[in-house]
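FIELD: query
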Amino acid sequence: MKLEMLLSLVLLIFIRATSVVAFLGVSPVQLYRQTSCSISACASKGANSEGSEDDSSISDGISADAENETDWITAEFTLRQFPAEPDPALDPHSLAVWICRSVQFVDYPSSAAGLERIFDFFTWECRKAVTARQGGDTVERFCQYGLLSPALQPMMGATRIVVGDDGTLTPGTPTRGALYSFPITVYGASNLKFQYSSGHLREGIHTESPRTDLVLRLEQARRPPLTGCWLVREILDVRHAFAGDMGNALS
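FIELD: result
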């Protein structure tokens, strides 16, 4: 009898607490900032490495058994290798991994630092697209509106991000550079098990974080001073994107 009363009390406290979160409309970024631990403190939660400084390409090395585990230690190794600026020598797959990891830890080591890192690696058109045409010109505005971006939010604070090794290369044309498309699988932040990204509560608590399939598309710049550099051209949610021959038709 006492055990049943105790369980009922715990359940009541949990319902009240989650109701307050929903009422206040806490965004996933805000909740992530309040609840996530530092990358170093979470080192014991992961066991994979995306590569070392000697590697020419970064690979996740995900096993089926580890699919539901956090990969934050992997992200730490990757962020330590994040390039300072676009360079034609950078491998497209490695760049895709760097971009995803930077958004995953958007507030590491300081608020919106992840968006500051990726600003120069996005085309102007892409910066406009992911910020609803509000943050394409300056780093400050990109960070301000990027935190609210539906294209970027699924990766913020994500439990795990898997970047496919097999990208789709589309040769360049007279009007644009070559394109490289990579499939991205995002296992959302742990708080999304019981609330939507808007902050409203879900009906019941899910045992797994929601999964989002994206396509990260890079374009090789043709104009100086970035000639030959790979830049992010598009970030597509496959639920809404046209399933053509560019790698979007992912099941």
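FIELD: remark
Strands lie at 160-163, 168-170, 179-187, 211-220, 230-237.
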